[in-house]
Amino acid sequence: MKLNREKILGFFKKSQSKASVILSDKTKASNTIKDALGKAVTNKGDLEGVWTKLVLLFAVSKDYVNGDYTEIPKRSIIAILGGLIYFLSPIDVIPDFVPVLGFIDDIYVLNLVYRQVLKDLERYKAWKDGQGKIIDINGSTA
User: Fold this and answer.
1) What does pTM read for this prediction?
2) What is the sign of the dihedral through the CA atoms of 51, 71, 78 and 7?
3) Which of 68, 74, 86, 116 could link 15 by a cystine bridge, Cβ 3.0 to 4.6 Å?
4) Phi, psi for 2 (deg, rounded to 5)
């Protein structure tokens, strides 16, 4: 199956625009992250290939929104939140209810976001490690 890259990127740009707006409201941002996490946990089997990346994206976005970690550029957090919004939407380029194929575009976008903000994520992991905390499924510390 060939992905329509331009169409996916168009949807993703719209998700980033929504993320920019949502980010100004801490409650909406937190709820978006929580909803996306719930969807991810429910569909973990379909997301096995990106699971560790996804957990890291959830963790940094949650820590940013909570004010615990703000050393990430705003454009990076908008990209991450935009990726989570794209993932959360059941109707995107390939609707999530399509058996087997429904998450292919979501995985593509999440990998794209991950690669785009990789250096920021490495700094976040170093910060987290420096605090002696690990990242768990809820994006909280253990």
Assistant:
1) 0.88
2) negative
3) 86
4) -95, 125
Structure-token pair, residue 36:
């996306």
Q: For residue 58, give both structure tokens.
A: 């959830």
In angstroms, rounded to a whole number, what is the distance separating the alpha carbons of residues 28 and 33?
Answer: 9
DSSP-derived letter for residue 72 is S
Give the tens place of pLDDT for each residue, 1-58: 566 888 889 999 999 999 999 999 999 999 999 999 999 999 898 898 899 999 999 9
Amino acid at 69: Y
HEC string of 74-106?
HHHHHHHHHHHHHHHCCCCCCCCCCCCCCCHHH
- Contact at 8 Å (CB) between 8 and 109? yes
Cα–Cα dist 54/46, whole Å: 12
